[in-house]
Amino acid sequence: MILVTGANGMVGSYFAELSAEFPEELDLTDRDTLDVRDWPAVRSRIRDGGYSHVIHLAAETDVDRCEVEPDHAYRTNAFGTQNVALACGEADAVLVYTSTAGVFGGDGAMGPFTETDAPCPANVYGRAKLEGERAVEHLVHRYFIVRAGWMMGGGPSRDKKFVAKILAQVGSGREIMAVNDKVGSPTFARELVLGIRDLIATGRYGLYHMTNHGVVSRYDVARRIASTVGSDVSIVPVGSDRFPLPAPRADSEAMRNEQLGYLGIDRMSSWEDALDAYLAEWRTAAGPRTASAADRGVR
Ligand SMILES: NC(=O)c1ccc[n+]([C@@H]2O[C@H](COP(=O)([O-])OP(=O)(O)OC[C@H]3O[C@@H](n4cnc5c(N)ncnc54)[C@H](OP(=O)(O)O)[C@@H]3O)[C@@H](O)[C@H]2O)c1
Hints:
The protein is of the alpha/beta class. The chain contains twelve helices and 13 strands.
């Protein structure tokens, strides 16, 4: 049996959908059924569950909320991960921790970053996730740390990130201002989940980057979305100073999957193919009678 924390989010939804792809049954938990900040609950669940693996997704992923509420960020992303790691260590379960490209770029380096580059987070979210990595490294004997990039996934009901926002803007038909001075590597959550499945099967523990291939700005993504859905909406490239936000963003969160390449199991597609696949998935999920402004943009 494999325990999954934070299974109600963008990435977690694919574990539910793809559960038959895993060699063991998945025990999907969310904040209500397993709050990772609750040490006694985490400890007893993992000790008594007899899990071979724990896939730890649960996190506060709102980067700006993390910046203004650092205690909340560290309590969830660092302390919560420490709880899961300690319990896995005690139970000798393999821990898979999803980390982030946000551990890079705080020093102005542009990457694309590989597993051998030294992390330097630009904001509280990145620092808290990096603390989580440290806890995993120190407390668990057998672990996979899997760093993902700009997440795409979840569809109309769960996507809270940039693709959903761009789709809503494309659907509105109004001019879009899209940032072109920050870059990253998109990561389609469906491919990430299948990649984690394949990585677990190797038993080759360690640190991995797992993103779609390519380095893009939000402007690049917006242009491809508009062209894919047949929209002629005007997209204007702008600097990030047009949108002041609480959390500073690194100029680059671009990554390369060097270790997966060495192992010969890098099956992540190009960012263009991944985005196209996600938009097709969105169209199917939206259905003909639930068309919102965002959905109309995809059609
Ligand atoms: N989103 C990205 O761009 C991105 C990029 C790279 C890596 N990652 C990492 O990938 C993992 C999955 O993220 P995601 O994209 O699926 O984000 P998500 O949609 O925000 O999902 C995270 C889930 O964790 C849950 N959660 C928050 N606090 C919790 C707690 N104390 N106990 C249990 N569950 C809790 C959330 O529940 P609520 O909905 O109730 O808050 C949410 O369902 C995270 O570890 C994240 O750091 C994400």
